[in-house]
Write a structure and sequence with these properties.
The protein is an alpha/beta fold. The chain is built from 15 helices and 14 strands.
């Protein structure tokens, strides 16, 4: 059994928990946070401190790059064969691989730091010790190829798709009185309502409920006060305002009929979670969303807003949580074109029960044995780990 050191910067994302629980055959992960990681993880659980860390500290220093610098003399856990760096470089002389959401993650998502440190990043990735650069999506791969001089390491860049485990349940398609629409801003992060298209969903639902009288909308997200008050006056909207245990959230997924996710970014696992519970997904043509949802097969991909500047440069996403940024100020106003197509595609699924089932089953198949399955992911990871350790 080979041991891989999972070196995570800050709070551990749920996708790494999936990795620990379902490793490639012949491998096990060892996770041992450093002092830097523990401080960052605690900060991420306190919104005010996390906000300072991301928006103030992140402007001053390249957070993930700083972690790599501070830990250049740190020894990995005993008897580990490979280091798996989650979103940061490794300066130590040991075999390592790195995974990325997109390339500026290496400097804490700050593009200015990335521009300044670009040449150093390229040299470290080209070193003999860096064995592979793992991208979550094809969109991520583009950010690496278009923003770094990859002549010394282009062959190391490989896409390994995210995956979630199969769910052991039988979808109940009983004669329910209402068709349930589900929106989950995030399972474990606050402040995601507008970022994930919550305003568009509410606008769309107000139009849909005039047309159909058998609908229910469930929102798992914190939402602005003025919208919360409005929702409480609607008997067909149910708010879950706050983080709830996964078992409770799982019941919402199991009993839903359609998953709405017209987001301005690509989530880690939310879309895949919905597919694993046999739900057709409606999302926007943003970043890697079309890689996850196959339009017309596992759901619908609607046009993105033309009002938003989605990229900074060379496919680097312009995702910005600063409430005073132009990006966040713009998404506080709903795009009526997005709402219109969201209503159109949701109406198709509301009226066609057989299509809902067919799309939901196709999505679940992708999770259980298709391109987003644990088996497919582990097949690629095993090849990467074997090559890194034995070659």
């Amino acid at each position: 059994m080979k041991r891989v050191y999972l070196d995570v910067a800050g709070r551990m994302h749920s996708l790494y928990k999936e990795l620990i629980l379902h490793p490639p055959p012949g491998y096990q992960f060892v996770a041992l946070g450093s002092g830097w990681d523990k401080v960052s993880s605690v900060a991420s659980k306190v919104n005010l401190i996390y906000s300072f860390q991301e928006k103030v500290l992140g402007e001053i220093i390249p957070v993930n790059f700083a972690k790599a610098c501070l830990e250049r003399f740190k020894k990995p856990p005993k008897d580990t064969d490979l280091t798996y760096a989650a979103g940061h470089l490794v300066f130590r002389k040991e075999p390592w691989v790195v995974d990325l959401e997109f390339v500026t993650q290496l400097t804490g998502y700050n593009v200015n730091h990335f521009r300044r440190l670009r040449s150093i990043i390229g040299k470290v990735l080209a070193s003999e010790y860096c064995k592979k650069i793992i991208c979550w999506t094809e969109a991520c791969k583009r950010t690496v190829l278009f923003n770094l001089d990859c002549r010394g390491f282009a062959d190391k860049v490989e896409v390994v798709r995210l995956a979630v485990h199969r769910k052991n349940f039988v979808k109940d398609y009983g004669n329910r009185e209402k068709i349930k629409l589900l929106f989950v801003g995030s399972a474990n992060i606050l402040g995601e309502f507008e970022y994930k298209g919550g305003r568009e969903i509410l606008e769309a639902f107000l139009l849909l409920r005039e047309k159909y009288h058998n609908l229910e909308l469930v929102i798992r997200s914190d939402i602005p006060q003025e919208l919360r008050s409005m929702c409480k006056g609607l008997n067909d909207v149910r708010l879950i305002d706050g983080i709830i245990p996964w078992k409770q959230l799982e019941q919402e997924f199991k009993s839903a009929d359609i998953f709405l996710f017209p987001s301005y970014s690509t989530p880690g696992l939310a879309i895949l979670d919905a597919m694993s519970y046999e739900l057709p997904v409606i999302t926007t043509d943003v970043w890697a969303n079309p890689e996850m949802v196959e339009n017309g097969k596992t759901g619908f991909v609607i046009k993105k807003s033309e009002k938003i500047q989605y990229y900074i440069e060379n496919f680097i996403p312009n995702w910005n949580y600063d409430p005073t940024s132009k990006f966040m100020m713009t998404i506080k106003t709903t795009d009526l074109k997005v709402v219109e197509e969201l209503v159109e595609k949701t109406s198709i699924l509301i009226e066609d029960e057989e299509l809902r089932r067919t799309m939901g089953k196709a999505g679940r198949q992708e999770i259980e044995s298709g391109k987003f399955s644990i088996e497919k992911r582990n097949e690629k990871l095993k090849g990467i780990f074997d090559e890194a350790i034995y070659s």
